[in-house]
Write a structure and sequence with these properties.
Number of helices: 2
Shape: elongated
Mean pLDDT: 78
Distance between the termini: 33 Å
Order of helices and strands: HH
Radius of gyration: 14 Å
Helix content: 55-70%
Structural class: mainly alpha
Number of strands: 0
Largest sheet: none
């Protein structure tokens, strides 16, 4: 798991298409890691919370790329 907690969208060095692919790829990797942690017999709840927070930030960054702000569907 990368140590940088900021979403890749902040870098500004990639094209929008590259950013979207990178965000989607990072989201997929974090989801796989979350599923792995959730399948463990002894849960690492702080690690799970960290991954959920990072997934939320990535999800918001992906939505932002599509012109959607926040989690409220009525906005």
């Amino acid at each position: 798991m990368p140590s940088d907690s900021a979403p890749a969208v902040r870098s500004g060095y990639l094209s929008p298409d590259d950013l979207n692919r990178d965000l989607q790829a990072e989201y997929g990797q974090l989801r796989e890691e979350l599923e792995r942690l959730m399948a463990e017999p002894v849960k690492d709840f702080p690690g799970i919370d960290l991954l959920v927070d990072r997934l939320e930030m990535l999800q918001l960054a992906i939505k932002e790329k599509h012109g959607i702000q926040g989690n409220n569907p009525n906005e």
